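Example (one chain per record):
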Amino acid sequence: MTITLKKTKQTEVQTAKNYVDHVYETIKKRDPHEVEFHQAVEEIFESLVLVFAKYPELIGKGLLERLVEPERVITFRVSWVDDQGKTQVNRGFRVQFNSAIGPYKGGLRFHPSVNTSVAKFLGFEQIFKNSLTGQQIGGGKGGSDFDPKGKSDGEVMRFTQSFMTELSKHIGSDVDVPAGDIGVGAREIGYLFGQYKRMHGKFEPGVLTGKGLEYGGSLVRPQATGYGVIYFVEEMLKDKGLSLKGQTVVVSGSGNVSTYAIEKATELGAKVVACSDSNGYIYDESGLNLDTIIQLKEIDRARISEYVIEHPTAKYVEGCSDIWSLPCDIALPCATQNEIDGSAAKSLVLGGVKAVGEGANMPSSQEAIDIFLKNGILFGPGKAANAGGVAVSSLEMAQNKSGVSWTFEEVDRKLHEIMEDIFQRCLTASEEYGHPGNLVIGANIAAFNKVSKAMLAQGVI
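Predicted structure:
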């Protein structure tokens, strides 16, 4: 991505770039193996050159140096006993990154890929995502390298109870409020909440979000990220005089985000023809049957390949990467980081894609993003497009504090308004800094400006 700023002296641009590059090189030298974290920082830093070029007086404030260093990184052992009576050991993580605008807020991910670098990349992104929502929530993230796949309910319960035994020392409704992420759904949140309640001897609903409705959860929370992605894509299209109606959509993943993105896109008149899991993808030219997908993935916990048993005219393809070779108008990467590389991005462009909305965190490589922007593809970066989940988590926190539960329609309306506002914030910032329509730059700058003002107001902390 080439950064320029009209009406700004080239010397100021170079000074800003030198500062940003220096901080980035320091990060890489300090933690050379944290490649996911480096990628997240580099993508955001490229945009922030524009801010420091426009306001060079900020360079001496140490904003970036403080922003990239977590306020706290917690790593702990999680010992638990499997169904065979054997002791297993996993690692737990919680990165409390930035609390300038509110308590740390971000999900827990249970997946074998989780390490310090992944937790830091997710936490760093969360600072910006949470800022964009307009809610009073800071950035944090965590999880474990535990894999819930193939584990019994008893094993998952014993692991999550052990995990929360340590995590509970570091969280609270006004301190750090975790939620779910990959591998952490309603079942896991329930077990985590139960263990926290047992240890603290009180019912404190605001300590976790994504809870069941029976014990302080919010309506629309399961749907929020998927719905939010569609609402954001809808705004991108609307800005260009287009709509979702009649568009062909390809979605990666088949979990919570993907499922509800499919539901909302279909409701708004689009035709979703493909989705995937970690083994492969299904393609149904007539449009996916959402009821079958929900039955397979949420109830039977089966593989997506079994879709073709119920729908023999559909096609199953082993392996996930080729899903982006399918022609489509809208692509929604909702699975995991870096699932769209340069080659996949080129395939999407050749296939006629008009818009890409990131439902996952950092699912597109920098090369892929550059290809989309160069070819005029509408691109909604994850920190903006998938902020609906944490936005409704914040609404869940508000309901817990007030003791009032809002209706589905009320929460959905608030979510829609938040996503519209996020789009406008990104668009306005992109225009103000000389890159109209570049929502990557717009999202990064709009989010940074809010957080940096809060940091400056609070002094050197």
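Caption: The chain has three domains: 10-68, 72-205, 224-385.
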